[in-house]
Write a structure and sequence with these properties.
Strand order of the largest sheet: 1-6-3-4
Number of helices: 2
Number of domains: 1
Structural class: mainly beta
Order of helices and strands: HHEEEEEEE
Strand content: 25-35%
Number of strands: 7
CATH superfamily: Carboxypeptidase-like, regulatory domain
Largest sheet: 4 strands, antiparallel
Helix content: under 10%
Shape: globular
CATH class: Mainly Beta
Length: 141
């Protein structure tokens, strides 16, 4: 009988919120800009490495069409190979957000530029990101 009374009694719980309550918080603390602009249709490929020159293996690389700070549309998602190489194929003219790190453990590249007209080979070196920053709980953008 005691067991039934315990199971039927109200249960106390505490709700713990992780992250900001304001839906605009991430847009206020992190201003997103395009980090890759293509002047004309071009083949885009490259490598992703960390500061020690170790390659990012089997890591997600995403190209998003930049529309505004609040809106980017995914154009292509690829993975790096065992040497950190990726190939985005032919990319059309426009402003983009290239996400070379799938997590906030590394800062996204600030500005990427093509040096060639025929083929754009990007050599991306990602820098470790501090974990105590205001945007550390925001999604990758």
């Amino acid at each position: 009988m005691f067991l039934i009374a315990m199971l039927a009694s109200p249960v106390l719980a505490q709700l713990v919120q992780i992250g900001p309550n304001d839906p605009n918080y991430c847009y206020d603390v992190e201003k997103i800009h395009p980090n890759f602009e293509v002047q004309g249709q071009i083949h885009v490929l490259g490598t992703v490495r960390d500061e020690t020159t170790a390659p990012f293996t089997n890591s997600r690389v995403e190209l998003r069409k930049y529309i505004s700070q609040r809106k980017q549309v995914s154009v292509r998602v690829v993975s790096t190979d065992s040497a950190g190489r990726f190939d985005l194929g032919i990319v059309s003219r426009g402003k983009y957000r290239l996400l070379a790190s799938p997590t906030r453990a590394f800062k996204q590249p600030a500005a990427l530029q093509c040096q060639n007209i025929d083929k754009c080979e990007l050599k991306i070196t990602l820098i470790v990101s501090p974990t105590d920053m205001p945007d550390s709980q925001c999604p990758i953008r």
